[in-house]
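Example record

Each entry pairs one chain with its bound ligand, flavin mononucleotide.
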Amino acid sequence: MADTINLSDIFSYDQNFQTIMLNMLQTALDSSFQGVMITEAEPGYPIIYVNQAICEMTGYTTKEFIGQSPSMLQGKNSDPKVLQELADKIDAGEIFHGRTFNYRKDGSEFMMEWKIVPIRGMEGEIANYLAIQREVRDGELSDGSLDTKLSI
Ligand SMILES: Cc1cc2nc3c(=O)[nH]c(=O)nc-3n(C[C@H](O)[C@H](O)[C@H](O)COP(=O)(O)O)c2cc1C
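C-alpha cells for the complex follow.
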C-alpha cells in the first residue's frame, strides 16, 4: 500500500488547524471528479452529504438525496451478492469495494463502482460512512484503464 501523509502532522502547530482542515476537506469533497457521499451510521444509512459529481452522475439534486437511503439508487439488476458483501463488510467495520448496476433519476441503468469507508469518532466508534463513487463504462478497469482482454 502507498504511504499516506497524515495532515495533522503538517498542520499541528497552526492555531487555525481546525478551520484549515475543515476548509480543505470541504473543498476537496466539493470539487472531486469522483462522487462523494456521507451517511449516518444508522439503519438505512440516511445521506447527509453528496457532492456535485454524484448529482451529475445520477440526475438527482442534493435536496433529493439528503435524508434518503443510498439504496434509492438500486433497481432490478442490482446484484444481491454484492449488497450482501457490503452489509458484511459494514458489520465487520471493514472497507467495502464493489460494483453493481444502479439507476439514475430518469430510470436509466449504469454500472456504479464504489468504496465505503467507516469514519470513526474520538472513542473509536463508527460515526459515519463515506463513499467514493464513480460510473464505470464498458470494459473499464478499477484504475480507469481499458481492459484489453475484453476488447480483443
Ligand atoms: C455510505 C454508503 C454509500 C452507499 N452507496 C451505495 C450506492 O452508491 N449504490 C448502491 O447500490 N448501494 C449503496 N449503498 C448500500 C445501500 O445503502 C444498502 O444496500 C442499503 O442501505 C441496505 O443495507 P442493509 O440491507 O444493510 O440495510 C451505500 C451504503 C452506504 C453506507
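Residues 148-152 have pLDDT under 50 and may be disordered.
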